[in-house]
Amino acid sequence: MSNKTALITGGTGGLGTAICKALCDRGDRVIACHLPSDTAPATAWQERLKEEGYDIAIIPGDVSSFTDTKRMIAEIEANYGWVDILVNCAGITRDKTLRKMEEKDWEDVVNVNLGSVFNVTRQVIEGMIERGFGRIVNISSVNGQRGQFGQTNYSAAKAGMHGFTMALAQESARKGVTVNSVSPGYIATSMTEAIPEDVRNQIVSGIPVGRMGDPEDIAHTIAFLTDEKSDYITGANIPVNGGLYMSF
Ligand code: CAA
Q: Which CATH number characterizes residue 236's domain?
């Protein structure tokens, strides 16, 4: 049983929902952050999860904006207390070959996927260090490790997330705060559903395990990394990709 407070950005999404449930199951106080424009669907999501027995708080916040993130964290601290566990899970794709990519496709992906990691982590790191406890997990991607046709923006942002992970892990290692990345492969969510079917089938045929992953595969890994006992794992990247990309 944990009595920690966990903030999950992108908490109402495909991976986020599974992560919220896993941390809730072990007794964390869970807060899911969602886009301010998504308050109605987020409220419906919250009600649906309540019917399933999950009591999860929701908070609006545009994590690509430093100012709005600052406001969001102040609101969380006023209403729920400090954040012990942060899972940076907010992410988008704008897949296009570089020849067709517009400046906005680049900026949106970099600001939401990578900028958000700075914006949110910057607000909570000081408190974690002062209290001598923190768990931060950044959801990177197999495509940050190996690159992907049509994802120069996303691959760059996801690789950048792990650079951030390793640097902050060094800064906070002696302060009881661990910082790690998880790199999912192709997981069955709306993000992978958006890939053209023929392209998706071709990718899945190359996965050694022979199928796409489930959001629960990622949630399980997050629960492990954010456990109080996982205090000697920091600066690591855990691939959860069905063998799609193997490295050490
Ligand atoms: N490798 C090499 N060549 C490829 C290729 C590949 N993987 N895929 C396509 N091509 C070739 C085509 O054969 C075609 O060649 P010709 O011009 O010689 O005919 C050319 O590239 C097509 O180029 P276009 O710029 O016209 O590309 P497009 O508009 O048809 O589509 C795309 C490009 C939108 C990127 C499409 O390929 C696509 O959606 N790919 C999937 C990208 C992907 O895997 N995204 C992951 C999303 S999920 C996620 O991101 C979560 C996570 O963390 C894993």
A: 3.40.50.720
